[in-house]
Amino acid sequence: MDNPPQIVLPCLDEADALPATLTALPAGWPVIVVDNGSTDDTAAVARSLGAEVVTEHRRGYGAAVHAGLLAADADLVAVLDGDGSLDASTLPAMAAEVALDRADLAVGRRVPVSAGVWPWHARAGNGLVSALLRRRGVPVHDIAPIRVAGRRALLDLGVADRAFGYPLELLLRAGAAGWRISETPVRYRARAGGRSKVSGSVRGTLRATRDMAGLLR
Question: Which fold has domain 6-216?
Answer without folding.
Answer: Spore Coat Polysaccharide Biosynthesis Protein SpsA; Chain A (3.90.550)
